[in-house]
């Protein structure tokens, strides 16, 4: 079982107040799989995102038709069985507190190499093979399923990196959208001043990919219920010169 410190690091997020998201959880055994691949046709399309001026040139794009509606419905059903809990905020010193002025939503954490690999196989051809002299490896196997109900949101923040003991680390966020048709709840990129904004409306089965260090928010959900998966692209340890 991993330590609480490792768990929080794997879920790293930094808000404008430099708060890292996290909560203490029990490790879950994952003999679970998602089977709805029968209608996946592999016709994935990519759309690059025009970011606010503060982040021009940084990596951000969305892939469409990555997962079928059936697969997404199975992910939702499975995690509802596993159970969702309120997402708390880590404030340092191993303490997690309820901070609804920063974040209000529910979360289900599923540690599963198999499902992380399923996502990776479909998106890896679009992900940079090298990042800061590091080679791309895989996705973080910790999948954070997020559920938003009316009134839920995540205030503007930057995503933090997950660094493994062997030096492997993440630089890129992966967000899988499992449903659509709700009101509000967009992923919104913005400038540091939070004035210039670029809104992405979720579509079922699409995947948003972007650098950790881009300001964004989970905009307030007005009606319906929103489900997403959040994980990270892992890169190799930095090579030391001899």
From TrEMBL:
One of the Pfam families matching this protein, by short name: 2OG-FeII_Oxy_3
Name of the molecule in the record: Prolyl 4-hydroxylase alpha subunit domain-containing protein
SMART domains per the UniProt record, alphabetical: P4Hc (SM00702)
GO CC terms in record: endoplasmic reticulum
Keyword terms, alphabetized: Dioxygenase, Iron, Metal-binding, Oxidoreductase, Vitamin C
Superkingdom: Eukaryota
Molecular function via GO: iron ion binding; L-ascorbic acid binding; procollagen-proline 4-dioxygenase activity
Cofactor: L-ascorbate
Domain Prolyl 4-hydroxylase alpha subunit: 58-234
